[in-house]
Write a structure and sequence with these properties.
Strand 4 and strand 5 form a beta hairpin. The chain has helices at residues 77-83, 86-95, 101-112, 119-126, 134-148, 158-184, 197-206, 217-229, 237-246, 252-263, 271-282, 288-297, 317-333, 338-351, 353-357, 365-374, 382-403; strands at residues 5-10, 15-20, 61-64, 69-72, 75-76. The chain is globular and about 80 Å long. It is built from 17 helices and five strands. Helix content is 50%, strand content 5%. With 431 residues, it is mainly alpha-helical. It has one domain (72-412): Citrate Synthase, domain 1, CATH 1.10.580.10. The chain binds acetyl coenzyme *A. Acetyl coenzyme *A (ACO) binds next to loops. Acetyl coenzyme *A binds at residues 267-268, 271, 295, 303-310, 358, 360, 363-365.
Length: 431
């Protein structure tokens, strides 16, 4: 008998089935042959929230959650954060290899020259209420881009795909900055092609009137590193949304808008915002023991935000890099007073049996919010700052999905638990 198979005996029928094992997986579709009768639908897998289901094959990002390893196309995140730049990493994620100097120059030129948005996009954004959350503005405006680029529907055309991907990566900082300016009641600042990807974004955020705002090189590098760390994270909630929506062959703007929407949630990209609110709520180091007690008892359904991860069951490697970057940023901006609370909270949680037993360690969001706040961003902008670099990962994953001959429109099964068939009751007969 071949060893790379799984033998299943159905105790309902006594029949035995041999199912091939491939890449450490069985194809759950192979379970469908397991039936009790000819009209039986066949066995399915039940896996709410995909805890143990691979939805695709991917060659982009590798994570070993137990060992705390994250690699983009085989390159360790620590090396990329130390030696690379965000656009170089973007090229790597999209193309599979690090760019040559010429390839990087061409890519940077392309991205830089697609940063402008149609003037009507500005008008569209003006329609939002003065206090609209920038993340909802971002999600809606990215979706609206599909109305500006009808050619994006040609998802099977490689050239079209590449143009839309360039547009998405290039325009994301512009739309993000416009959403910030709108919420501040300030005029939009147009992109500046002389600046780097990150410096241009910061200039669109910070420039007032004709002031020639110059970004501090440490802050420019810090944000570039944060963008590298957030560029991709394999099949997380937002990427799964992009793949799922994209599997209907809709244009990539609509698919990426679904990713932005998923990222908005407090259990995903909204967590760094939630971390800051939590730290402010704690207010002082002396209040930490009481807060930890509430988290452990489940009182008020409190969680230690910025802790825990579906995949990492050890220290998130991105959190380690971010902690270092935080100190570099605070040398320029002055220390964020919440840092003291965060460090103490981390220290206590890493020793507390509740968190140790559940393998709850700081994740990428635990320190990123402190950096963003020190750089002058309001909490509402935190998930937006996550969405800008993650657009690269969404696009790389979307294109991989489009090119994968095994992929089809996503359509999970369900276990029906509702009422059996019954007859309609007329209104006057209902109790
Ligand atoms: N604080 C307190 N307890 C926690 C936390 C936390 N942050 N995270 C998990 N737990 C507990 C759960 O209550 C559960 O305890 P139980 O076994 O006694 O019921 C156990 O740890 C396992 O947690 P699950 O919810 O099953 O883990 P899951 O993988 O489903 O959730 C998640 C992962 C959503 C990230 C969770 O840890 C969480 O909510 N963390 C806080 C929010 C956060 O920081 N999100 C950012 C994630 S990183 C990112 O998206 C970029």
């Amino acid at each position: 008998m071949p060893t790379d198979t799984l033998t299943i005996t159905d105790n309902r029928t006594g029949k035995t089935y041999e199912i091939p094992i491939e890449n450490g997986c069985i194809r759950t579709h192979a379970l469908r042959q397991i039936k009790v009768s000819n009209d039986d639908f066949g066995l399915m897998g039940y896996d709410p929230a995909f805890l143990n289901t691979a939805n695709c094959k991917s060659a982009i990002t590798f994570i070993d959650g137990d060992k705390g390893i994250l690699e983009y196309r085989g390159y360790p995140i620590e090396q990329l954060a130390e030696q690379s730049s965000f656009l170089e990493v973007a090229y790597l994620l999209l193309n599979g290899e690090l760019p040559s100097p010429k390839q990087l120059e061409e890519f940077q030129f392309l991205v830089t020259h697609h940063t402008y948005v149609h003037e009507n996009v500005k008008t569209f954004m003006d329609g939002f209420r003065y206090d609209a959350h920038p993340m909802s503005m971002l999600a809606s405006t990215v979706a609206a881009l599909s109305g500006f680029y009808p050619d994006a529907k040609h998802t099977k055309d490689e050239q079209s795909r590449r143009i839309q991907i360039t547009r998405l990566i290039a325009k994301m900082p512009t739309i993000a900055a416009f959403s910030f300016r709108h919420s501040m009641g300030q005029p939009y600042i147009y992109p500046d092609n002389e600046l780097s990807y990150v410096a241009n974004f910061l200039a669109m955020i910070k420039r007032i009137g004709t002031s020639t705002y110059k970004v501090h090189p440490t802050l420019e590098r810090a944000l570039d590193v944060l963008f590298i760390l957030h560029a991709d994270h394999e099949q997380n909630c937002s990427t799964t949304s992009v793949r799922t929506v994209g599997s209907s062959e809709v244009d990539p703007y609509s698919a990426v808008a679904s990713g932005v929407a998923a990222l908005y949630g407090p259990l995903h990209g909204g967590a760094n915002e939630a971390v800051l609110r939590m730290l402010r709520g704690i207010g002082h180091v002396s209040k930490i023991p009481e807060f930890i007690k509430q988290v452990k008892s489940g009182e008020g359904e409190k969680k230690l935000m910025g802790f825990g991860h579906r995949v990492y069951k050890s220290y998130d490697p991105r959190a380690k890099v971010i902690k270092r970057v935080a100190h570099e940023v605070f040398d320029v901006t002055g220390k964020n007073p919440l840092l003291e609370i965060a460090l103490e909270l981390e220290k206590i949680a890493l020793q507390d049996e509740y968190f140790v037993k559940r393998k709850l360690y700081p994740n990428v969001d635990f320190y990123s919010g402190l950096i963003y706040e020190a750089m002058g961003f309001p909490v509402e902008m935190f998930p937006v700052l996550f969405a800008i670099p993650r657009t690269v990962g969404w696009c790389a994953q979307w294109e991989e999905m489009v090119k994968d001959p095994e992929q089809k429109i996503a359509r999970p099964r369900q276990v029906f638990t509702g009422s059996t068939r019954r007859d309609y009751v007329a209104m006057d007969k209902r109790k």
